[in-house]
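Run log, item B.
One chain of 114 residues. Sequence copied directly from the ordering sheet:
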Amino acid sequence: MTKQPWNKNKSIGQKIKSRREQLDLTQSDLARRLKIQQQRVRELEDTSKRPSAEMLLRISDALDTPMLYFLTDCELNNADEEVLLVKFRKLTPDRKKLAIEIIKLMAEHDPQNS
């Protein structure tokens, strides 16, 4: 995975565009990877509105980028948390254990909890 520029001053849309460009992908390329219309990619990049957690997971996968890169300085809302919980419940027991360990590590190293 390519090292990411962790720029907290960019919006999620700007981060999506920046990462897409780092990978030399066009909006059409990303749209194909996400199985959405190119217009939707343009909207994701140009708007300050945050995509749903599910879309952000898809973008993260399509751009081979940790979801945390896009969420830096962002708050999850209750709907996003529900989507993540539903996805967590679908994981295999081994994957659930891994997810729990990752969350524990993130919580232990969260600068806001210092």
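Observations after the first pass:
- Helices lie at 12-22, 27-34, 38-46, 53-62, 67-71, 78-89, 93-108.
- The domain at 1-74 is CATH 1.10.260.40 (434 Repressor (Amino-terminal Domain)).
Flagged for discussion on Thursday.
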